[in-house]
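Appendix B: complex inputs.
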Amino acid sequence: MTSERFIAIATPTALLFALLAVVLPSGAGAQYARFALPISLVIGAGLAFWVGAFYRAGMRNAFWLLGGFLLLYGLSNWDWLLSSVAERLGANFLRALLIYQIVDYAMLLAATVWVVRMVDVRRLSRPGWLFAAGTVVVAVAFVLNGMPTVRELFDLSSEAGTIYLVIRIFDVLVMTMLVPVVWLYVQNANSEYRENSTFMLVLVGIIASLTSAYLYEIVKGDPLTVIAASEYQQGSFLDVLYLFGYLIIAIGLFAHRKHQEWSFNRLDRLLLGDGS
Amino acid sequence: MRAQQAENAIDEIWSKALDKIMKADAPSQDRPELGSEIDLAVAQAGSSALLSSVPTFTKMLYSGGYNAATRNTYLVLRRLGMPTDFFWKFGYWDEKRAFETLDKVISRVFTALMSKQKMGELQLVAVHPETATFEIAFENCAECAGLTASAPMCFFHGGSFAGMLAAMLDEGLSATEVECVATGGERCRFMIRSSDDRASVVALDRWCAEFECHFEPERRFGVSLKNQMVRPTGNMVDIHYYQMLLASAFLSNIDLIERACFEAGQAIGKALLGTVRDMFGNDPSVALPSFYKSLRYANVVLGSSDDGGFEIKISEAPEHFGSLERSSLVPFLSGEVESLVSGLTGRPMNCESSDVNQQDIVLRMVPLEQADAKGQAA
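Resulting structure:
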């Protein structure tokens, strides 16, 4: 096995798993999405901790913080868990959820900062910087597109409005930081020492899972709150997008951890004379 | 042009060495009569003689090893299907993982490659990824076995190991030898550090600048000719090692050291005269072929010429065989043979010409008085 072969097999398989959410009959599809979304996040968290143990210093911080984010995010996606916590906390639930989300997204943001420091995006070429600037414009568009909803939510509850705004800002911040890193990989893809492809797949998964909903919102023309209420964990195309993003993260993490073992096995086979 | 020749030769030698560990049934490139091995003393003589006479040769040996290893380690690993991101973010690996992974690659590829060539046994001793510091041990080192020195002298291997790690990790590295068999150590040991660490560069410069060599060819060749073992793995080394050394350190710098090579050859020839005479007699047509054959160096045939000189055909010499066929390195051998023939015949000779054809090196020795007369007439 090689990382490239694993990714080539696992990615379409992940897409099939994600598509099950819309292929299955609506009730079963919703059940499936309710189960698969948090489970894929928790698996991703486990893999991120496993990969982090492989490193020290900044790289370990990046993976462990990512693992922390995925774990908390996965738990918050567990419907019954959320309902039971809401029941226990009553009126304080929204405030607690706000703190929880801030802590969760702060971990993702910190992980991203570590990634940017580790990969050193200062090596970006001129087109890379232009692309990064374009990403900032898209990020601002995502935030502005959500502002009417933020205002409506603030009228109802300041906590709900803050959660909505904070998540959106954190998401686009992460996106604007990670897109240049991925560009750097593309820029150096053919150089003698390229960036790690499996790591890039993890970043692509993160970017996709964070931003696909905002693209979906723009395409559909409805606020995300409306879309989420009617489609999230209902066996919808939105579920497919999220699930595929989370599975890509998990695939990237697994391939990243196994990359060396597989590469070395290949080298061993070649030295023994039976490699292709 | 010569630099390009050297690079091509180096790449070819590495590639053949890799073939040997990749494919057991790889076609043999051995010399038809003398086979694939040569006495270590031959490989050591050239570099030791130049270390004695050219102060900057330490740096040439080191850089030759470094550059050849950097370039070819990269090519070897790509040929073995190792992805270019295999050692990605090595500085952030924990020590256990760094040591185990690097050790696996080194022992599977480079230790195998060097052992096969009888260069010595390479072993990774310690790795500190956060500071890019490595310790390497090298047993049965072909560069210094049987030699004595007042300071560590394995410049070629130091450069090669630093270059090899530098290519794997995409990092500038500098090596210094901290223990050497030639100075009485149990084995050769190298410390390799990041070139960003100023102290490591200073240490390398000091090692290269302060080394003084006192090579005693008669003692070293005497040991080999009497079949006394200089190391447990024997006195022989694969000619690919010798050719790698020739191409990396000599051929790459030949424009600078051509004259010095010839003079070093002359000095060695003079120093070896007594040993050759004692062991093989005074007749050059017997002594020279026997001497070179006993070292598995080359086939030598002497033919007399009318002017009292000799036409000497040398075949299968590593300097003009296989990967070095197109870029023969004759000056050293010419000088050595000139001194030996002069001494054995008792008539000073001058190497009037050295030609290479497809198979042989042909040296024309004429008595010095005739050469002088020709010179004056001209």
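Chain A has ten helices and no strands.
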